[in-house]
């Protein structure tokens, strides 16, 4: 077991949290990982496999009370409204994304806890170099989700430099999972397409052919979080936030990969202007050499191996 930690996960029922929670409980011990959420109820699996509490992340006192009660020394702040949904309600996107973060930063400072808050490829914009997007580059996002992520990166770096709070983060690409259903993100088509394929349904792709986006399979995403949080701080030149990459593809490429195993699968295009505009402002693929050099980032899945695993796991899940 890695050195003893007392962990609080805020947003444990979300896309990442629902899988990060059992992953961390397996590493640190179930009793040492406290799951919390206020938007979605915890599943029975999360609530019964370890301690849990209800936290409104926009209420700093809720966070402080939990940190004090459970003697927390590591916080995972996963509270956010995803890109497409945040565009429909920008104020909510800001209030959740930044309200939760500033509260977590203040509590982490008060109780000397480390803090992980994921950033995203959404932190970039159309002026950012799209091919081999550098670690340090222009960030002028055109979505409220992206604005909150850039703000979060800057605030987290500020609290580290000004107050010594151990803040760390990665810029996640699109996350593909066979466990958690899509939750309103621009890259969610890459999850939806597998479900449609397994159910033998026509898939209506919201993005145009040729729309390249960085993607990552959830097992690699979970490993990235733990590896960064366990990394020697003396080795970290960057903190908030590291580019992490695994694979890049467009709809035609993932469609062709799935058809290797399900040759009758059909995909058609049904353009979604909001998602397309967001996707067009994001990188085609990121340069993640800083993460590889500073803390040993090394993904294990590519499009081929992920597709095999996704199709197999979804068939089991749907009892097909």
Short description:
With 320 residues, the protein is of the alpha/beta class. It has two domains: 7-172, NAD(P)-binding Rossmann-like Domain (Rossmann fold), CATH 3.40.50; 175-214 and 246-317, UDP-galactose 4-epimerase, domain 1 (Alpha-Beta Complex).
Give me the strand/helix succession. EHEHEHEHHEEEHEEEHEEHEEHEHEHH
Number of domains: 2
- Supply the CATH superfamily name of the largest domain: NAD(P)-binding Rossmann-like Domain
CATH topology of the largest domain: Rossmann fold
Rounded radius of gyration (Å): 19 Å
The residue-averaged pLDDT reads 93
Ends: how far apart? 37 Å
Amount of helix:
40-55%
Going by helix content, strand content and strand pairing, the class is alpha/beta
Q: Widest sheet: strand order?
A: 3-2-1-4-5-8
Task: Enumerate the spans where pLDDT stays under 50 for 5 or more consecutive residues.
Answer: none
Mass-distribution shape: globular
What CATH architecture label of the largest domain applies?
A: 3-Layer(aba) Sandwich
The CATH class of the largest domain, by name, is Alpha Beta
Largest sheet: 6 strands, parallel
Helical region count? 12
Annotation, overall tally of beta strands: 16
Q: What are the SSEs and their pairings?
A:
Layout: E1 7-10, H1 17-28, E2 33-36, H2 44-48, E3 52-53, H3 60-70, E4 74-77, H4 83-88, H5 90-111, E5 114-116, E6 119-120, E7 131-133, H6 144-163, E8 167-168, E9 170-172, E10 174-176, H7 189-198, E11 203-205, E12 213-217, H8 218-229, E13 242-243, E14 247-249, H9 251-259, E15 267-269, H10 273-280, E16 285-286, H11 289-295, H12 303-317
Parallel strand pairs: 1-2, 1-4, 2-3, 4-5, 5-8, 6-9, 7-16, 9-13, 10-12, 11-15
Antiparallel strand pairs: 12-14
Helix pairs in contact: 3-5, 5-6, 7-9, 7-12
């Amino acid at each position: 077991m890695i050195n003893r930690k007392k962990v609080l996960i805020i947003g444990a029922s979300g896309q990442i949290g629902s899988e990060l929670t059992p992953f961390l409980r397996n590493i640190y011990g179930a009793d040492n990982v406290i799951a919390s959420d206020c938007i979605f109820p915890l599943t029975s699996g999360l609530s019964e496999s370890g301690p849990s509490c209800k936290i409104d992340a926009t209420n700093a006192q809720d966070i402080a009370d939990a940190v004090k009660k459970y003697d927390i020394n590591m916080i995972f702040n996963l509270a956010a409204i995803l890109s497409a949904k945040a565009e429909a309600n920008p104020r909510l996107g800001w209030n959740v994304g930044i309200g939760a973060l500033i509260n977590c930063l203040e509590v982490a400072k008060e109780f000397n806890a480390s803090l992980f808050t994921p950033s995203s490829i959404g932190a970039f914009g159309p002026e950012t170099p799209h091919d081999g997007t550098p670690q340090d580059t222009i960030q002028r996002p055109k979505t409220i989700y992206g604005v909150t992520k850039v703000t979060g990166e800057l605030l987290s770096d500020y609290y580290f430099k000004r107050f010594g709070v151990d803040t760390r983060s990665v810029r996640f690409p699109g996350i593909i999972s066979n466990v958690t259903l899509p939750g309103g993100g621009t890259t969610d088509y890459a999850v939806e397409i597998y479900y449609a394929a397994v159910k033998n349904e026509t898939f209506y792709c919201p993005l145009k052919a040729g729309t390249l986006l960085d993607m990552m399979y959830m097992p690699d995403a979970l490993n990235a979080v733990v590896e960064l949080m366990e990394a020697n701080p003396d080795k970290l030149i960057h903190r908030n936030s590291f580019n992490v990459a695994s694979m890049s593809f467009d709809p035609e490429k993932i469609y062709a990969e799935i058809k290797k195993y399900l040759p009758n699968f059909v995909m058609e295009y049904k353009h979604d202007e909001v998602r397309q505009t967001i996707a067009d402002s994001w990188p085609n693929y990121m340069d993640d050499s800083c993460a590889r050099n500073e803390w040993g980032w090394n993904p294990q899945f590519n499009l081929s191996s992920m597709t095999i695993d996704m199709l197999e796991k979804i068939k089991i899940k749907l009892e097909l």
